[in-house]
Amino acid sequence: MKRRTLLQWGATGAVTSAVPHFSLAMSRSPQYDYVLTASEQTLPLVDGGLTPGLAFNGQFPAPVIRAKQGKPLRIHFINKLAQETTIHWHGIRLDNAMDGVPYLTQPPIKPGESFDYEFTCPDAGTFWYHPHMHSIEQLGKGLVGALIVEETEAQNFDREVILGFKDWRLNKDGSFMPLSEPRHAARAGTLGNIATVNGKQLPVIDVPGNASLRLRLLNMDNSRQFAISLGEHQASLLAIDAMPVVPRSLTTQDLAVGMRLDIGITTPAEIGTEIAVYDVKGRFYQKIGSLRVSDVLRNTPPPPPKALPPNPVSEPDLSNAEKLSFVFEWAGAMTPVTSDGHAMNEFWTINRRAWSSMSHKNLPEPLAELQLGKSYIFDLYNATPHGHPIHLHGLIFKVLKSDKKDITPFFTDTILLEKNERAQIALVADNPGQWMYHCHVIEHMKTGLMGYISVS
């Protein structure tokens, strides 16, 4: 977004953020909208210690990137890490060359080098960005950020609140514990021990009373799955993974790794009132943060949140769709060992095949080859005792049905498959390229549960 446009947007009284510590990484260069730099950075995550993390533009939370629906976005990225890296723009239907997958869509960006990402966001909503290389370490140490694509017409909300969920694996002095342990990677994933929202433990975020809020929730963790509830406070679910749904009352909603939710609420008028955000585990409600009324915006409550405008997603032709099957399974094999004794863990497979490596010398065949413009139905089966959030790059699919849940069909880019769940999704192969297709529990992805789909 141009600097002049951004200043005009802020001056019109349109939606403003209720999380001021998310700063904008606006570029001073006329040919870029943003400049992002990845580097080592100490982070104040625990009392009495600093964490040797990684950060975009030297901060966590990372800068919020904002774009306009249907308008080009230009980002100049500089790698000041000691490792190669890339950036993947999670959930954006973009040109394949900009998708940020090393060796599949672009060469890795070496230390000291830069890369220009330029793409147009056809869909509005809540997205995020992260590396797709050395992912356990780079995401685990802080390289995650929110990407917000504004609708072409302003929506009727008084405020926007961004809630980014991320756990950390830290010792008491702030140093990192091992980010991955094989015994956990072969199960649900290695969980963190310091839970944060916007980089804070149990934050209390001030919001106005008698106001209409748009909550943007993002699960940017490596492993942890959430089930979100606002308790007894009335709330409307407005979008799942940036795709608008018919507004419905929020009770409990899955927020698996990589997923996002847009929620509309009206705040009470009483100053000091808190609205708790919970992670629901069975009968237990674990508080992970809260909103607190700090002032009153108006004398009477605003009208209830309205439906968000639909995104331009193609409707699959189910009557003429080709069916494909994908089985996500536990490999259960002995760990292969290299000649130097290095263990190469492979715990998971898609259609009995584990992704062996990410290298230009060893790129496997695609899991499926789709014809451009054709509709497909995917039969998915999670033949494991653990949940897997299955994410597809570059395309949006429609969840049709499940043998574990009652489904009102909806569009998304990620589906959480529960243990032993069978589900059916459908899509139109309308974006050419080679698109990653993987579990977004990062350790599952890195130990086999990854592949790609070719659209040509």
Would you kindly provide a written description of the structure presented here, covering whatever features stand out?
The structure is a single chain. With about 450 residues, this protein is mainly beta. The chain has helices at about 5-10, 135-140, 180-185, 440-445, and strands at about 15, 35-45, 50-55, 65-70, 70-80, 90, 115-120, 125-130, 145-150, 160-170, 195, 205-210, 210-220, 225-230, 235-240, 245-250, 255, 260-265, 275-280, 285-295, 320-330, 350, 370, 375-385, 390, 395-400, 410, 415, 420-430, 435-440, 450-455. Strands 1, 10, 11, 13, 15, 16 and 18 form a seven-stranded mixed β-sheet that branches. Strand 2 and strand 3 (about 50-55) form a beta hairpin. The longest helix is centred in the N-terminal third of the chain and has 9 residues, at about 5-10. The chain starts with a helix and ends with a strand. Residues about 1-25 have low confidence and may be disordered.
Secondary-structure map with pairings?
Elements: H1 3-11, E1 16-17, E2 34-46, E3 49-56, E4 65-68, E5 72-79, E6 88-90, E7 114-120, E8 125-130, H2 135-140, E9 145-150, E10 159-168, H3 182-185, E11 194-197, E12 204-209, E13 212-219, E14 226-229, E15 235-240, E16 243-249, E17 253-255, E18 260-266, E19 274-281, E20 284-296, E21 322-330, E22 348-350, E23 368-370, E24 375-383, E25 388-392, E26 397-402, E27 410-412, E28 414-417, E29 422-428, E30 433-439, H4 442-446, E31 450-455
Parallel strand pairs: 1-10, 2-5, 4-9, 10-13, 12-20, 21-24, 23-31
Antiparallel strand pairs: 2-3, 5-7, 6-8, 8-9, 10-11, 13-18, 14-17, 14-19, 15-16, 15-18, 19-20, 21-22, 24-29, 25-28, 25-30, 26-27, 26-29, 30-31
